[in-house]
Specification:
Layout lengths: L1 H25 L9 H4 L5 E8 L7 E10 L11 E10 L2 E15 L2 E11 L8 E7 L7 E4 L21 E2 L8 E3 L9
Antiparallel strand pairs: 1-2, 1-9, 2-3, 3-4, 4-5, 5-6, 6-7, 7-8
Length: 189
Amino acid sequence: MKRRTKIIAVAAAFLIIAGATGSAVASGEGADGVSAARTVQREAAALTGTAKLYRPAGDDITFSFDAHLAEGDRQDPMKATGTFRFSHYKGDWGGYAKVKVDCLATGGKVAVVSGVVVETDVKEFRKARVGVTVHDDDDAGDRLGYTWMTADPQKDKVPPCVSGAPFEKVQEGTGDFRVTPWEFVYPTE
């Protein structure tokens, strides 16, 4: 009976703490006038979201991102984590790739992410490093570019955090990319 009482007491304490934390965040401003949202530590950089590329011929080309750079790794974009996927299908032809992120750099609403393909059904992409550039533009529409447009991913080695300009248009209504801008902290003497 003592063990059950202790578990209930711990659970109740957790709920009270969680409730107090939730109400402090929900209240907006603390007693010192500082917004509670500003006191939450954010990631140093991130790229998330999914979109289909615009193709009038009916190709189904989709990109999905879940790439993150932790605040503690702010000074080293090559410590980014996460994955991204892309696929290209038309009729019974096509393929996909899943990529393990090895670098993420963002500036404003633009992100460059690279990584090594860890899963694919396209032999040319096996273990190749690929890079993608995303422009998160809510007004004019998201755009995207990539490194393998004319390169052989097996022969032409792509360095980390390198990609092409975002030349591709995202299909209207599908772009939900979100870029968290990276802010480099310059060392002081």
